[in-house]
């Protein structure tokens, strides 16, 4: 059975979205992209990442002030 995962690591989310790993980490550190912490592992929900990308379409993700936060 090949189920789609609900959550992804930062590396998986970066690969899936095309956003670089370092940029993805910055977005999390800035509090723009909510995550689940499980010990040392950081998990990003698939639906949250999709919502984040929709809300920030056309924005410069390298500029903290230009990035909209999602809940």
From TrEMBL:
NCBIfam families associated with the record: excise (TIGR01764)
Q: Which InterPro entries does this chain map to?
A: DNA-bd_dom_put_sf, HTH_17, SinI_DNA-bd, Tn1545/Tn916_Xis
Q: Which GO terms describe its molecular function?
A: DNA binding
Q: Which Gene3D superfamilies match?
A: 3.90.105.50
Q: Protein name, please?
A: Helix-turn-helix domain-containing protein
Domain Helix-turn-helix, chain residue ranges per copy: 8-54
**Highest rank taxon of the organism:** Bacteria
């Amino acid at each position: 059975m090949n189920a789609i995962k609900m959550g992804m690591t930062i590396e998986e989310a970066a690969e899936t979205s095309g956003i670089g790993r370092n940029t993805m980490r910055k977005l999390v550190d800035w509090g723009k992209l909510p995550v689940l912490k499980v010990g040392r592992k950081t998990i990003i929900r698939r639906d949250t990442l999709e919502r984040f990308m929709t809300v920030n379409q056309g924005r410069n993700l390298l500029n903290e002030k230009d990035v909209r936060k999602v809940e």
